[in-house]
Amino acid sequence: MGACEFINVAKGKTAKEAFSAAVKQARYDHGHAGYTGTLAEKGGFVFISNKRADTLKEAEELASTLINEGDDRVDDKWGPAGCIRVGETDTYVFFGWASS
After folding, report:
1. pLDDT digits (tens, 9 = 90+) for 19-77
2. Is the pTM of this model over 0.85?
3. Count: domains in the chain
4. How far apart are CA 74 and CA 46, in angstroms?
5. In which domain, by residue range, is 13 found?
6. What is the SS3 assignment for 41?
7. Cα separation of 48 and 7, whole Å?
8. Widest CA span of the chain, in angstroms?
């Protein structure tokens, strides 16, 4: 089995709420059978708190950079998704690798 990278944007009062909504949507869009290569495969997330993103574009670019650099926090298709909060908003970017 392989892996695919993903970047998803979700809104919620908390990161946990946004993550739950994004996983639910990914399962609706790609199925529940497993190995979808999407956020649907993730059971949790880890905050990327040492970097700041004030805009959605900055958050997506940072997520892409961390994926491409193989950042240990998100470089495991079986591990947690990365999470970046966009400024002080209720918007979160979830990203990483997922089994496919």
Report:
1. 999 999 999 999 888 899 999 999 999 999 888 899 999 999 999 999 999 999 999 99
2. yes
3. 1
4. 8
5. 3-99
6. helix
7. 14
8. 38
Cα gap 91→15, rounded to integer Å: 8
Please give the torsion angle defined by the CA atoms of residues 13, 27, 97 and 61, in that order, rounded to the nearest 10 degrees: -50
- Overall size of the chain counted in residues: 100
CB-CB contact of 45 with 79 (8 Å): no
Identify the weakest region by mean pLDDT among 1-5, 14-18, 77-81, 84-88.
Answer: 1-5
Token pair, residue 64, equals: 């892409």
Are the CB atoms for 19 and 53 separated by under 8 Å? no
Give the Cα separation of 73 and 45 in Å (integer).
9
Q: How far apart are CA 79 and CA 56, in angstroms?
A: 24
If you ran DSSP here, which 8-state letter would residue 76 be given? -
Contacts 24+ apart (CB under 8 A), 75-80: 77/3, 77/41, 80/42, 80/43, 80/44, 80/45, 80/46
Distance, CA of 19 to CA of 7 (rounded, Å): 12
Tokens 């949507």 locate to 25
